[in-house]
Amino acid sequence: xxxxxxxxxxxxxxxxxxxxxxxxxxxxxxxxxxxxxxxxxxxxxxxxxxxxxxxxxxxxxxxxxxxxxxxxxxxxxxxxxxxxxxxxxxxxxxxxxxxxxxxxxxxxxxxxxxxxxxxxxxxxxxxxxxxxxxxxxxxxxxxxxxxxxxxxxxxxxxxxxxxxxxxxxxxxxxxxxxxxxxxxxxxxxxxxxxxxxxxxxxxxxxxxxxxxxxxxxxxxxxxxxxxxxxxxxxxxxxxxxxxxxxxxxxxxxxxxxxxxxxxxxxxxxxxxxxxxxxxxxxxxxxxxxxxxxxxxxxxxxxxxxxxxxxxxxxxxxxxxxxxxxxxxxxxxxxxxxxxxxxxxxxxxxx
Amino acid sequence: xxxxxxxxxxxxxxxxxxxxxxxxxxxxxxxxxxxxxxxxxxxxxxxxxxxxxxxxxxxxxxxxxxxxxxxxxxxxxxxxxxxxxxxxxxxxxxxxxxxxxxxxxxxxxxxxxxxxxxxxxxxxxxxxxxxxxxxxxxxxxxxxxxxxxxxxxxxxxxxxxxxxxxxxxxxxxxxxxxxxxxxxxxxxxxxxxxxxxxxxxxxxxxxxxxxxxxxxxxxxxxxxxxxxxxxxxxxxxxxxxxxxxxxxxxxxxxxxxxxxxxxxx
Lengths: 350, 265
Prior knowledge:
The structure holds 2 protein chains of 2 kinds. Chain A is mainly alpha-helical. Chain A is built from 15 helices and no strands.
């Protein structure tokens, strides 16, 4: 197992400090995020704008219509992705698992790509009636569709075993991947550009009205996952062992599946694919706090919120006035991190 | 009393259990023995309610197993399985505390903590409490898990409820000392009022600790009773195909199986 032989030095102390410390860090990043960007807005101005006592209309619009929605989205999506990562790693009892395994990413990608490429021809009605909501709705439907398919496949014999879930996930992901390939092949230049940028993820250009369904779904799923923290601990003992301790293991797996599909689906639909947040955050938290989900879940959520809002701050300020796709940044952090983890594990094994 | 009546279980066409009747009472250690593929683990799984039965039923304290909810069941019986998939770095203390979930409605968390520390003390793993479970040796892991199941049973035993411990080949990966130690602990748990059922491969070990033995062969119970009644020379020949005798009360030694030279090819 990767990176699991963690030290247990003062874990309980870390547990007490982690949540307040991360919470403070989130608040700091929140205010820095509001102030930094193409137009720098000072703290006093921010406070005035939030209280609606400022008269600068431009800055008012920047805060209320651009930066605040974006920060809220970054934090909520980051928290959701990290929580789902932690839950998937528990359910697969493998620290390398991520929501992609149950078809969330590929399904959303299929939905989004289909809407982008076929939106002017085959799905013209769908695209016209939904307007700017077409791609998010398409992505969400694609995600839920593929997840339901994988769920049905693996729950086929009433067992819902992890191995059947894994195999169904791999097979369906491969099929969906080839469908995306076909759609990419028939797309024109503009569509190709659109779908490429979609797949790199972005938190830009969302209004509160557009974000509301996403935020609601993520918050509901996060609360659901938090409530499963204790059963998930027992689940790590083994399925039979958890059952002997009174846990309905099949129900637990189904709940985790549903929350993860809803949460990641809602996030991916609006932001595109943002890799590695769900993987690194629970990993780091587990190294520091240990595997107990009662701490791991809430701390990962805060950590995910912090990481994604920081990454987004970086994405939109580092090469002004242009903007980097956020998926690039999280992957650029996640890839090397993953390699370091691997190397450390090999070193430990000698 | 934990009992199984006319238990029959099949996988496809293969008969795992064939009309098995089984009982275990509080304060008693019952050991299930039999050659490979005799259905020992299947019987234990059937008693846990882990495999579907073709016919027959299992009851705990005069109530059918299927009439209990999973969480009620968790207060009445604990199961120690052969292997642990636990790959995440929980401490021993956290592993033992996992047993609390069965009793968190009836007991305060302080009382449950006391059950944990008692159980760890009983199994001699108190000094490992803050250690990472994944880094323990095989024997220490086994003892830590035994502490967990003891912690799961003790609240019920303290309330004078009949509770049962089911153990599936607890000794398969352990050295001789730890094999005897695990069984000694199981016996000690029985003396606190639990009914203990264990699947054991080693006949000498079984004979040393069992109040009663069930010998299985091809899914059927071929004999049941005290070690002396069950482990006869004729039956060992018939079921295990070895020429051997059970030695009891020799030179201050535990019972053991003596295998004749001419028989081992």
